[in-house]
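Appendix B: complex inputs.
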Amino acid sequence: MTNKLLLTGLLVGGSLLAYGQDEKIDMATMDKIRQEGMQKSQVMETAFYLTDVNGPRIQGPGYMNAANYAKGKLAGYGLQNSRLESWGDWGKGWNVERCYFAMTAPYYKSMIAVPRAWSGSTNKLQTADILFITDTDTMALESYKGKLKNKIILMDQTYKVSPSFKADADRYTEEELQKMASAEAPRGSGGQRGGAGGDSTMRRMMQTMRTRNVFNQKMRKMAKTEGAVGILNSTQTSKDGTLFVSGDYANAALGAVPDDLADLSISAEDYMMLCRLMKAKVPVKLEVDVKTKFFADDIKGYNVLAEIPGTDPKLKEEVVMLGAHLDSWHAATGATDNAAGSAVMMEAVRILKAVGAKPRRTIRIALWSGEEQGLFGSRNYVTNHLVDAKTSKLTKDGENISAYFNVDNGTGKIRGIYLQGNVAAGPIFTQWLKPFNDLGATTVTAQNTGGTDHQSFDRVGVPGFQFIQDRIEYNTRTHHTNMDTYDHLQPDDLKQAATVVAAFVYNAAMRDQKIPVKEPVTAQQSNR
Amino acid sequence: MTNKLLLTGLLVGGSLLAYGQDEKIDMATMDKIRQEGMQKSQVMETAFYLTDVNGPRIQGPGYMNAANYAKGKLAGYGLQNSRLESWGDWGKGWNVERCYFAMTAPYYKSMIAVPRAWSGSTNKLQTADILFITDTDTMALESYKGKLKNKIILMDQTYKVSPSFKADADRYTEEELQKMASAEAPRGSGGQRGGAGGDSTMRRMMQTMRTRNVFNQKMRKMAKTEGAVGILNSTQTSKDGTLFVSGDYANAALGAVPDDLADLSISAEDYMMLCRLMKAKVPVKLEVDVKTKFFADDIKGYNVLAEIPGTDPKLKEEVVMLGAHLDSWHAATGATDNAAGSAVMMEAVRILKAVGAKPRRTIRIALWSGEEQGLFGSRNYVTNHLVDAKTSKLTKDGENISAYFNVDNGTGKIRGIYLQGNVAAGPIFTQWLKPFNDLGATTVTAQNTGGTDHQSFDRVGVPGFQFIQDRIEYNTRTHHTNMDTYDHLQPDDLKQAATVVAAFVYNAAMRDQKIPVKEPVTAQQSNR
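Resulting structure:
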């Protein structure tokens, strides 16, 4: 019903309609945005370039090529001051120049393999036996001393590969959305609890990673000292040919010397087969050829930034930001994580330029780097520009940010937005969503979500939001996998997402007031 | 309810219980079979050897090693006359000794690739450009003449890679089983219609394959003449890292000379990426290293056969057969197609020996070769032993086969049996299933199923049956894929299947009469 009324509103066009109590929405512009976003989309061309043409966008030439492409594209759309801006030292860049891995005895089997990020090289095709490590205790590693030379290291694991009786892909059901809509705000603010993550989730993940790394680092040190050829890794979810691969970035530290050790992710099936053959005392031979390259010529990290200048003399110093991380892991071309978000944000500003939007506030797009290793690009942007290092309070520039909108949950269309505990923004966003309810964007939840760049803003008291997106196959097939490729993008979803984002950004730039801030709860947060 | 009564019957044991009108079932032996099959199973050890240890079982050393293992194992169980029996000339054996494929420009990406069966070699690591063929008409190939040297050939395709909103794996629902149970028998007999296949389905498939091959064979001829490096293939379903790979076996013909052409299957995602890059005129470089080997030292095809001799002087000339094809495609280790069926059948006879069964009729196990290329092993067994070439009638040996039972539908447990139109066998099998109803084996359907070795028997009038098995992820992830590996086997399902098969074979061997035959409908069929 509402949808039909809205469509009529859209067709009439031109008038300022008021939904609810106070939000004035420029329906003529909403209509133009929708026409441009849904009918004349360029989002897939952008995604094609960022993925198929550019390749993985991990720190190094892969990221820099994409960043320069985006800079040029944004300038081409007519944005001002399109630029790469260094946020500080990142570390060495890296990429893969060859990866081949196979079993040659008891029979030949080439295996799906991806070097973990910042893996070293084998320097040539090497043939190797397995050193099978059945201990998991760091002390017990001592007993393997002197046995690692020319070996490929395999640690005993018990991954259980199970068939999927649940579909890889799904969309939010109405029930799920209603549950999210009626959820209470998390206690306190700033992403400490609830939702799909938050800082505490990230801290736990990083703690687990560190614990696991103690064993791995000791083994790696022994392996390097003794001249091992490589180390094999897998995860229980790496099945059916889909490998989940990320990497430790210790090797990217400024002074680190690349080692001659291939750090290889393989499938759980192949991993378990090797374990079973070892336990059955079947002689196994492997061959491996991994060549990676480290780049130390420019160790800085760069974000891409560009603006549509504000037109209202009183408001143009204020800024509405939209952003997404442009970097990716390397096992594929990071299509859903996060060429999707980057292409959507680029498309959103393209739409705004195409419809001739004259925003009162300045609109700034940011494409971040180093998100995958810890939100480096956005955190440092916030530190460098928005927070006073001495007082920990927001700078004038920080105070001037009305809101930051982020997209980083894959290829799914927008179903609504996480308030991140900022309940005062709820009624506003509810009204902004109405013209797009018929496209599936309906839900405002007080809940938090975590694990991406809006947190860098939220944690210092700048309103930062991430949209709710349909999951599609993000958690099963694409997120940090070798299958995160262009073909896993859903064109219609991305068109919708860019349309909704363009509308949100436009509304935020036109609104009389900035987006409300949450009640400050920590000393670090601003009291504006 | 029935299940509880049955369990009581099993606990009492020892007596001959009569279900329905006439089937006498030795419940003490059923109980022993169940105990041995479900509690002391060796089916996964057998499957481990056939897959992880042995590797792919395509014609050549891969198949012969597995056949010799099975022969030894069956003799070890105490079966008589365990043997490899040649059924005639198959053609050259083949295997893969190296496979590496990657894109090196515009950036590096190693790709999941599997040579199609009987692919040639590149002889060394070769770097190559793509020749992109946008025509599909055989005549239009002329325009590419003179352009193939040192090229890798890519034909324009429009595969749509879609996320799966349906689970990869499932089991038969009660509704599905009831529908199968109430289905009418197909008109006529002998697998001409209905079910999951039948001879007509196979004929259609082979016709389609031949049509496609006309274009491919012409292109291959040009490619070979001009010195191309390779040809790329894919299928729309080859996604998420799961590749569906089989192969043409023209190259296995007796006199064929292997060519210097790599015939490579890659994923739909990689295939489509290459097509998109070609269309966008982005320069692409590939590197490929494929080494395959042809074996002409023994071109014969061999089945594995062994017996448990009958003990009833009047019936021991009669034979109950159980079988499964032991051969596989080569992209993985053919775990669900059909190490599963082979291991189940080997386990079934092991169970019978372990429980000290003294069958009245002789029980013969057959593990077939060349099933994947057209039921060669079973067809020729039937031709060589069971049919008189001159009269097209069954021989004495053919008349003596009471029934042939087959398992070749993956790793799923047995849910019942296809009558293949032999409705007279229905009431018998319904009663035989009763002691295993509580294990999910309940359904007798008059329907046909096709595509495997029971058809070789059914088509000449020997009662041939295939069991109904839960699909699990057979059609989505394992059937003819690079993911058909040990970890995709379901141990509990295979234990159940071996238990049910052992019971059926035992009951068939003990029954006073042979299994009824269908009404003869063709001149080729027997009129016994």
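The first strand of chain A starts at residue 16 and ends at 19.
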